[in-house]
Amino acid sequence: MTQHMHDRLLIIDFGSQVTQLIARRLRELNVYCEIHPYQSVTDAFLADFAPKAIIFSGGPDSVTRAGSPRPPKSAYSLGVPILGICYGQQVMMHDLGGLVEAGQSHTAEFGRAYVVPTANRLSILDGWFQGDKGREQVWMSHGDHVSKLAPGFEVYGTSSGAPFAITADLDRNFYAVQFHPEVHHTPRGATLYENFVRLAGFTGDWTMRAYRQDAIEKIREQVGDKRVICGLSGGVDSSVAAVLIHEAIGEQLTCVFVDHGLLRLNEAREVVTMFRDTYNIPLIHADESDLFLGALEGVSDPEVKRKTIGKLFIDVFQKYANEIDGAEFLAQGTLYPDVIESVSFSGGPSVTIKSHHNVGGLPEKMGLKLVEPLRELFKDEVRALGRELGLPEAFIGRHPFPGPGLAIRCPGEITRDKLEILRKADAVYIDQIRKHGLYDEIWQAFAAILPMRTVGVMGDGRTYDYALALRAVTSVDGMTADYYPFSHEFLGETATRIINEVQGVNRVFYDCTSKPPGTIELE
């Protein structure tokens, strides 16, 4: 396994909503880490994983409840540094002889708080306390609290609701904090992680250059002389996976690009040109736009749209893949957040907000084995790998684009005329964002054509044309998002350009909804 070539840090997940942020902070420090739910972390697992350090995540449970989550006792006897966060601190104290009490109004803390240092110095806090009046802002989210330290621990920081906000047992290299250093509401939290991995002896050997070489060797070992097919969407994930696999096995890879007629302006041409001409990767361009648009005719329900597109995609992909003799592997751009979700603390979301379009079911249906060279990476690491592989920056930095494409940016019935209007309007909008130097500040931006027409006046004549919605959000991982605060001047200039340059639009709105309560896409 590739990761065995690196020092590894284990994050034991107790169900926090922000556990992934811990991993992201560590990866930014070039430290390889993995998240595993506490249920799967056994004595045997620990022995095999051989972590250089361990972090206990936060969680929603109470250690005072019988049967609440626990790490294996052997974790404490490995002789490696451990950092407990929030629930992780409480479980540490409980397991090692301290006392945790259930929530009380005067000790609960939710939201912004301030930690002040004690007279004792602690290496994990080096350079951390730089806030106003010697205190540091943190983000608290706890009802229960530690009321008695475990033997060997001392207090190094306090807050108004947490007398043991920062504690440590220096002899055993055990550290524990009641707050969440991984969230951006703890502005200098990254310093704590940096200090922790330094004292644990990590050298920062997790780089994309090293990953590239490791992944190539791993692909060659897995595939041998067999052939691989890759479902190419034109997005960053599948594109980086394809270029990486091609570097490993060359002509043994064939990409299948399914053009469902729901792509952005000139997108199909750009994808085909890049992969055929620039990288010389064998590519089947499956132009099945008539098939998809025909099946979507008269369909307005968003779930029916998604399921129709997903089913057709599988059918079309299989049809073209069957033409590739000797294919035994299917390549997918699966990322680490997808892996975490599939084995998460809670088993994944309990409520389906909307179904997702992917190639799910294909490996079993076609008897193929999976090649997933990106399954250890977060999105930002995939972009870094893409740069390492030499993909164009304009392509690597593209905003996410949904599998169903413009179908879910066209609420209501889809028609070719509406799609053509939408493509042109979206292109003007993105051009405006790039011209104003805002593209890289925004997680995702797009136009959507609304299922309504409005009366307007153009050239002293009455118009009755479509209304358009513009959407732009900032986000870290797409799980939550805020709308981007464009200036009124930008919005006015953009609306004017769209109405002047795109026939069929006479009104433009800007969507100021955050996620939650909304979603990023309209459908």
- C-alpha geometry: globular
Q: Give the helix/strand class.
A: alpha/beta
Tally of helical runs: 15
Biggest β-sheet: count, sense, barrel? 9 strands, mixed
- How many individual domains? 3
The portion of residues assigned to helices is: 25-40%
- Beta-strand portion reads 15-25%
CATH superfamily of the largest domain: Class I glutamine amidotransferase (GATase) domain
Low-confidence stretches: 345-361
Instruction: Supply the CATH class of the largest domain.
Output: Alpha Beta
Mean pLDDT: 86
Would you tell me which CATH topology of the largest domain applies? Answer: Rossmann fold
End-to-end separation: 39 Å
> What is Rg?
26 Å
CATH architecture descriptor of the largest domain: 3-Layer(aba) Sandwich
